[in-house]
Amino acid sequence: MSKDDFRQCYGPLALVTGASSGIGMAFARALAQRDLDLVLVARREDRLAALARELMAQHGVDVRVLAVDLAAPGATERMVEALAGGDIGLLVSNAGFGLKGAHEDNDPGAMAALLQVNCLAPLQLSHRLIPHLRERGRGGIIITSSVEGFMGVPYSAAYAASKAFTNSLAESLWGELSPAGIDVLALCPGSTDTEAHDKQGIDRTRLQDMMSPQEVAALALDNLAQGPVYIAGEQNRAMFDALLAMPRREALLLMADNIRAALL
Ligand SMILES: NC(=O)c1ccc[n+]([C@@H]2O[C@H](COP(=O)([O-])OP(=O)(O)OC[C@H]3O[C@@H](n4cnc5c(N)ncnc54)[C@H](OP(=O)(O)O)[C@@H]3O)[C@@H](O)[C@H]2O)c1
């Protein structure tokens, strides 16, 4: 799709959550390159402000920053109110985080926050923005999910369950919205080279075959009309096809062994 067609369909304004690092930051850069104005959301305001300055200077787009903790009660509601009147044509609900380890060892508060950020935020944001997208008759919703959404993942129980939720949410919304000219995509990255691993205490240098966040975001934008679910990267598709073809009990025990050896 040409830059003009992309802006016509998904512009003039895109909302990107989780834009202070990783895949969300890559989305923001790729969308600014396509001449979309942006609203960038995350907690680390200094990072968002630096990115906004960079994108405004390089691409001449308008960039607004909203420092929001999406785990806070009522956060998405306040955010949508602050954006009232903006012609948002593309929602990139990307903010999210994982928790690794035995389920019983994880902190209940952190698990509740995970569900709020990974599940409730995309649910509530899409709920509030769809009426405007329908009115326009064009636009898109990208929800960053994960390959972990396709089956349970031992030692990543809450995260994998949250991503099963987002895959299902995106599929349902695709069924509702694609006849109205609105694209919906659950982006399912495999291992991607971002801070997400450091935050979970995983040594990034031990991970192999990671994709870059830039590649993942670019693939998502190029395949936005190919919803409802899109796995980024040939080798991730092949790996998950192989796992899904195995008897489920065998696949789960194999993953448990591998993850236990790597993590614990
Ligand atoms: N990296 C991977 O291997 C991988 C694989 C599959 C799926 N994913 C998914 O990709 C998405 C982006 O992750 P990433 O890999 O790019 O990780 P990342 O670099 O850690 O980025 C996560 C983003 O989410 C934001 N965020 C987290 N908690 C938030 C909160 N409470 N309120 C507002 N913003 C919050 C962070 O911003 P602040 O900390 O500034 O708030 C940050 O901008 C996530 O949904 C993740 O589950 C990642």
Report on the structure:
- 52% of the residues lie in helices and 14% in strands.
- The mean pLDDT is 96.
- It has a single domain (3-263), classed as Rossmann fold, CATH 3.40.50.720.
- It has a 7-stranded parallel β-sheet, sandwiched between helices.
- The longest helix is centred in the middle third of the chain and has 29 residues, at 108-136.
- 44% of the residues are buried.
- The chain has 10 helices and 7 strands.
- The protein has helices at 3-10, 22-33, 45-59, 75-82, 108-136, 157-177, 195-199, 213-222, 234-245, 248-263, and strands at residues 13-17, 37-42, 63-67, 88-93, 139-144, 182-188, 229-231.
- Residues 18-24, 42-44, 68-71, 94-98, 117, 144, 146, 189, 191-192, 194-196, 199, 213 line the site of NADP nicotinamide-adenine-dinucleotide phosphate.
- NADP nicotinamide-adenine-dinucleotide phosphate (NAP) is lined by residues 18-24, 42-44, 68-71, 94-98, 117, 144, 146, 189, 191-192, 194-196, 199, 213.
